[in-house]
Structures are given as C-alpha cells and as structure tokens.
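Bumping with the actual sequence this time:
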Amino acid sequence: MNFDYPPGATPLSYEELQELIPSHIETQEELNAWEEKNIIEAQSWAFKQKNILSEEFIKKLHKHMFNKTWKWAGRFRQTGKNIGISWASISMSIRELCEDVRYQLDHHVFSKDEIVIRFHHRLVWIHPFPNGNGRLARLMADLLITRQGGIRFSWGMHQNLYKQTSTRKLYIEALQKADRGDYSDLLSFSRS
C-alpha cells in the first residue's frame, strides 16, 4: 500500500493498516474513494437516528462510516497519534463532551451554530479513532445542527476535505486557530 497523507492527516500505524478489509486497495486515492462510498451509505442510516449525543452513538456512527473499510471501525484508538488526547482518556472525554453540549444547548450558551462548531472542533481534538475523525466530526456536526432545526453545514462547498487542496488548507488553519480559542474562521468556513 502506498498512502500519501495530506498535511494534517493522521498516519496509520502498521498494525492499523493490517486491518484494511478490501484487499484490492493500494493507493490513498483508492482508499479515499472506497471510504467515501462507505460514508455515503452511513449518512442515510445516521439521519434516521434519534439520540446522537452519546459515546455509544459516536462509536456506532464511525462503525457505519468505515465498517467496509477497517476492521477497527467503531473502536476507539489504543495508540498515540500526532494529534489528539491520550488514548486512555478518550471514553471519558467523549462523555464529557456530550454532557457539555447538552448543557450548552439547553442553556443557549452560544448560538446553535457556534455550539455545534465547538462540538466539532473538540471531537476532532479528542481524535477518538485511528482515522476518519474529521469526517466523523463533520457528519456529527451536520446531524447535531439539523436536530436543532438548522441546515447542514457546507464545509467549503462540500469539497473532499481529505484531499490536499486549498480548501483543506483553509479547514486545517481554521481548526488550528480554534485550538487557540478563536472559532471565527471555523464558523465562517463551516458555512462557506
């Protein structure tokens, strides 16, 4: 396999790569196309679900998004990565995130868009899975905003943010700015 990770992507370990399900995939482009089909199928399931703010749902969603691609789909990572918290704290951090977002929504702490974008950012920052965290966080944000009566985010006009493009660069820069507590660019990007 010859995977060429774009800037900001999380490289998979040798052990994680060994759990690739389709044997015909040899390049990053083939992997991206295969995963995209899997994710499209998962979206139709996800938008029918009711209770989405839970650790259980986040695991199920990841599994639905990548179950035809990775044997580890839906299981939290058990290794360190170039981004994210310690793998031992993932479960607790996800539960805290869901509780925080419920509180923020119930008490109108920020606008609905900002609550959801902050949720998205924090889920990416936790980085619970070996791979697919950005795509998972964007889909979770779309699910959450539609549950609040809003419309799905455009995420840079729905371009494939897993490919190395100028749109991905803007997205990564907006995430990095949010790491420093400034969500303005990420909010703008999400509706661009």
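The tokens above came from a reply further down the thread. The chain has a mean pLDDT of 94.
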